[in-house]
Amino acid sequence: MSTPFFPTDCWYAVATSSQVTDQPFSIRLLEHEILLRRVGSARLSAHSAICRHRRCHLKGAGIDSEFNLTCPFHGWTYDSSGRCVEIPLLPAAEAIPSDSILRSFPVLEKNGLIWLWFSAEGHLPSYEVPVIAELEGLTLLPSTDIEYHFAANYTRTLENILDPTHAPFTHGSSVGKVDPQTDYTMEHYEVIHDPLGFTAQMPIKVKKIKGLTSLILDKNSNPYKEYRYIYPNVGISTIHFGKLTLCAIQAHIPESEQSTTVRLTNARNFLLKTPVVSSWFDRVTIQTGTKICMEDESIILDQIPVRSEFVGSNEVLVGSDSIIIAFRKYLKEKQFRTVS
Amino acid sequence: MNTWQLVARAESITASPYVISIGAERYVAYRTASGLLRAFVDRCPHRGASFKTGWLEDACLRCPYHGWGFDPDGHCVDIPADSDGTRVPIAARLQSVVVVEQGGFVWLSADAEPDLASLPSGLIESLAELQLLASGERPVAAYFGHVTEALTELPYLSSLISTQRLRLDCESVQSTDQSLSASYQVFEKNTPLTITPTRLKAFGLKGFSFEICFPSTILCKLSFEDPINDLCLLTSNIQQSTQSTNVLWFVFAESKRRQVSRKTVESLVDEIFADFALTIETVPSCPSEQEEIRESHLSSDVIVDSYRRALARLSRSSS
Predict the structure, then answer these.
(1) Which contiguous run of DSSP H or E holds residue B9?
(2) Same domain, B106 and B228
């Protein structure tokens, strides 16, 4: 059995902006239970979701006007930084134990996502969350957010969304058919590295777009797609049909060795003004996105080995897999450290 | 030594990929246009995907992930995304395994050079004369060896018959490299058997016998006062993990004039599986050679003892 190992000392995207409200939003990251919430209008809070008293999960905790959170088990109350401020059954002669503090995490909001700093050894943030250039000129659409759980390793789910050549086979029924006469050949493409990941562009081969979407997306506009990987757990796919651009920003949250939740948000630069048409296209976006997740799931859950690696997976990678090779190389060079 | 596992009825293997899990390994089988069976380790050399949702196209097995096509010998002959004259890497091939169709069933051997002579031909022949009455597939939360052992004592299972009426005929125990068989005698005669208290009435069990083909295919014969009612239960107990087994089961009748209905047979099988929940599914884990098994064995446990010795021999010879 392989030892679970994950990137540490990095910003993990853990939720979409719309998922986090003033009520506790519970996530699992690398086997840690964490609560996210908004405190007032400007501040975000992220701390352990497990009460220090008897390990009760705090996702059902009540929140008072001071933004304090009260454990549903014995009423221990914590402030937004995770410090215990009240214990109802505390004997008069005793003080609140000094170690009754929930571990808190640096957290911020950017690019439509919530980012959490994770360091196994408690180091402070050492770099800034990058700006996602693709989002320039696009409108984020929180109403199209999708959450999907995979009983799989995050390396497999992430490399799947960066994979340019599986769509005609795995997603033939949801995205669009490749013309049987068309060859599936993927021309050589460049993988361009940057300090926190890489990007690659390639033409879109789909020749028959499904349903009403074909009225909007012109297949004769030399469409192309663009993938971006942001270390450690974000994948972005952008498609360009002429001037029309659609962008999906995906956070692949590693919960444990074989459990990953994908939280994604979408952005586009068209069909934004007319509410009826706009909400119709939002629904199409959600339906298509969910169907794609289901189709990918049928593949990913059965992949052997569970985790993809630069060496050790015993796989035959070919020219069109350049981006997959780049991804695996990137992870290898980052030298994962064990999270205990 | 070679071992064969019964993995499917012959008609289950068609031009659609059929996936079989045995222990930690997964295999995919299909039938070519000319009717030949092909089977491989179910793992695309490209990205480790399963062919479960793959398909056959122009005599090629296609991977559902990136459409790589494999010829009937398992060699990759088409990589759609790299089909601009790039040579297919030699390493891009599937590892084949041997499957054989006999007696209406498909047998798989994971051995590199399996010996056809070690197929349980006697058992296969005896099946050919019987009529298939019902069949199915059931997951059991127990070690596959425990499932097989329990079936050697089928009549003892509480809902079938009270334990006083049958006794192992020790003289009948026969053991070879490939199989183990024995029969039981009814010693309290004239007591009608109530196979299930309500549904299956008074056919008068005369005897019970079984034959195990290692590792875990077992044929159980229930014979009755009137031979037209004789039934055979064949199961293939396929290991999934140390605590889970996929049981393929088939019930055959000796005669068309049988008095027992298909429905009764199905509920009989249901009761056998229900009994597993109270017995073998409560046994903690598989017996390992390293671990001393704390069980008190009687002389009547000779069957279990010889079966476990055979499994230990098999696992030694395969490792």
Answers:
(1) strand B5-9
(2) no
Whether B135 and B112 share a structural domain: no
Residue A14 sits at the vertex; the CA angle it makes with A8 and A20, to the nearest 5 degrees, is 145
Tokens of A172: 């033939």
CATH number, domain of B42, equals 2.102.10.10
| B82 touching A (Cβ < 8 Å) | yes
**Using CB atoms within 10 A of its CB, is residue A173 exposed (0-12), middle (13-18) or buried (19+)?**
exposed
Q: Name the 3-class secondary structure at A152.
A: coil
Whether B291 is covered by a domain: the verdict is no
Question: Which chain A residue's Cα is nearest to B86?
Answer: A319
User: Which domain, by its residues, includes B113?
Assistant: 5-118
- Across the interface, of B26, B45, B52, the residue whose CB is closest to A315 is B45
How far apart are the C-alpha atoms of B205 and B183, rounded to whole Å?
13
Residue B88 is classified by DSSP as P
Per-residue DSSP letter, A131: P
Domains of chain A with bracketed CATH? 10-118 (2.102.10.10), 133-333 (3.90.380.10)
List the single best residue of B19, B27, B28, B47 to mutate versus A (max A Cβ within 10 A): B47
Read off the pTM.
Answer: 0.84
pLDDT along chain B (319 residues), means of 10: 85 95 95 95 96 93 95 95 83 95 91 87 84 94 93 70 63 90 72 45 70 94 83 94 94 81 84 84 66 61 88 81
Which residues in chain A are closer than 8 Å to B92, comparing Cβ atoms? 316
Distance CA A68, CA A53 (A): 16
Q: Decide if A52 contacts A76 (C-beta within 8 A).
A: yes
Total of domains in chain B: 2
The span from the first CA to the last CA of chain B, in angstroms, equals 11
Judge whether A264 and A13 are in contact, CB under 8 Å.
no
Distances (CA, A) of A285 to A162, A164, B88: 19, 19, 37
- A165:B49 CB<8 A: no
Residues B103 and B175 in one domain: no
- Mapping DSSP onto H, E and C, the string for B107-127 reads EEECCCCCCHHHCCHHHHHHH
Q: Provide ipTM, 2 decimals.
A: 0.84
